[in-house]
Amino acid sequence: MDLDLSPAVTAFRDEVRAWLAAHVPEGLPSMDTASGFAAHREWERTLADARLAVVSWPAEYTGRDASLLEWVLFEEEYYAAGAPGRVSQNGIFLLAPTLFAHGTQEQRDRLLPRMARADDVWAQAWSEPEAGSDLAALRSRAVRTDGGWLLSGQKTWSSRASFADRGFGLFRTNPEAARHKGLTYFLFDLRAEGVTVRPIDQLDGEPGFAEIFLDNVFVPDCDVLGAVDDGWRVAMSTASNERGLSLRSPGRFLAAADRLVDLWVSRGDLSSRDRVVDAWIGAQAYRLHTFGTVSRLAEGGELGAESSVTKLFWSELDVALHETALDLLGADGELAGPWQDGYLFSLAGPIYAGTNEIQRNVVAERLLGLPR
């Protein structure tokens, strides 16, 4: 693709850079605490007021109709400015693309504006006990009733569920069907009668995850996303976005790589030079790979099994960046700080969004054509 930016794209990038320089707050509390969650929700509303919360969405949903290239540049500016993590990321980066692809007009009109302003923060309810990376093994079920469905079962490791408003996930609607058949994609209220949310502490002791227990929770027909019994196909478009492009934009790793170079310069540790260079090159390579993906999508391509390669790369790059930083810090790395926080979070990367072991199977079978 042509990496020379047009005047319009340059103007968009400059506008974003100037706005962030004037508005990025300092030191918000962790979004995995009640007070931090509220502060991050308010930050999302500040972004929405500036029409910068969902720049790639259509203008009718408070977006900017930004191209994928503009979105990648927005992300680079966002992380370079040190802006807070996005408490709405499950909704705006995972559920929203699925709504645009598979939702009804009524669902888009009803759900997207509230998502953009963080009036509804969404939790991802994929995993279950004995059905994590093997998502098709899930046992939570939905039974038909007047005007909708009754959901029952247990979801676990549900991101943002401790403080979120709504959840999305798969439920088995036809127990007689094959594993990947007979599943339906539902949207549900985390405060509905029959829902119990039990927080799960992370390594840092904060409740970033939760278990969700559902006991005959009523969901109206209007909150079925896609066709009944066709949830696997709908969910795979969500998973491709999660692994391949939208959840981990290169801006996040570019900013971390630049901070790592600054740290290395301040420490003057020549023994770590090659690891720092490798990490910086890795971030730049991921950026260029993303531009290649953007070009392919702009020409009508789709995210498919290649997203598993992307997920393997960014998750291992994140660990390498933070391990190198902690080694540079030496004993200082044991103290609480952004590098230690980032390292603890990076350890989850090879697990969430489908474990790296599963992604290697996908690469082997679907891309390389190796036998099962």
TrEMBL record:
Recorded GO terms, molecular function? Answer: flavin adenine dinucleotide binding; oxidoreductase activity, acting on the CH-CH group of donors
**Source species, domain of life:** Bacteria
Can you give the residue ranges of the Acyl-CoA dehydrogenase/oxidase N-terminal domain? 10-118
Show the InterPro entries listed in the entry. Answer: Acyl-CoA_Oxase/DH_mid-dom, Acyl-CoA_Oxase/DH_mid-dom_sf, AcylCo_DH-like_C, AcylCo_DH/oxidase_C, AcylCoA_DH/ox_N, AcylCoA_DH/ox_N_sf, AcylCoA_DH/oxidase_NM_dom_sf, Mycobact_Acyl-CoA_DH
Acyl-CoA oxidase/dehydrogenase middle domain mapped to chain residues: 123-217
User: Which SUPFAM superfamilies does this one have?
Assistant: Acyl-CoA dehydrogenase C-terminal domain-like (SSF47203), Acyl-CoA dehydrogenase NM domain-like (SSF56645)
Look up the signal peptide feature and give its range.
none
Q: Which Pfam families match?
A: Acyl-CoA_dh_1, Acyl-CoA_dh_M, Acyl-CoA_dh_N
Question: Where does the record place the Acyl-CoA dehydrogenase/oxidase C-terminal domain?
Answer: 229-368
Q: Which Gene3D superfamilies match?
A: Acyl-CoA dehydrogenase/oxidase, N-terminal domain, Butyryl-CoA Dehydrogenase, subunit A, domain 2, Butyryl-CoA Dehydrogenase, subunit A, domain 3
Q: Tell me which cofactor or cofactors this protein depends on.
A: FAD
Q: Which PANTHER family match?
A: ACYL-COA DEHYDROGENASE (PTHR43292), ACYL-COA DEHYDROGENASE FADE29 (PTHR43292:SF3)
Give the family per the record.
Answer: Belongs to the acyl-CoA dehydrogenase family.
What is the recorded name of this protein?
Acyl-CoA dehydrogenase
